[in-house]
Amino acid sequence: MPKQEGQKSKLVTLLRILEQRTDENHRLNVPQLVQLLENQGILAERKSIYSDIDTLRSLGYDIQLQRGRGGGYWMASRAFELSELKLLVDAVQSSSVISARTSKRIIHKLEALCSDYEGTQLQRQVYVDGRPKTDSQTLLYSIDALHTAINRGCLVQFRYKGSSAVRTVSPWQLAWENGCYYLIAYQDEKAPPVRHYRVDRMSGVLVLDEPRRGKEFFRTFDLPAYLRKHFNMFGGTEYRVTLRCAADLEPVMRERFGREPVFCPEDAEHFHFDVPICVSQQFFGWVCGFGGKVEVTAPAAVRAQLHEMVQSLAEQHE
Question: Which runs of consecutive H residues, i.e. helices, occur in the chain?
Answer without folding.
Answer: 3-21, 30-39, 46-58, 82-94, 100-111, 116-119, 139-152, 215-218, 223-229, 250-257, 281-288, 300-316
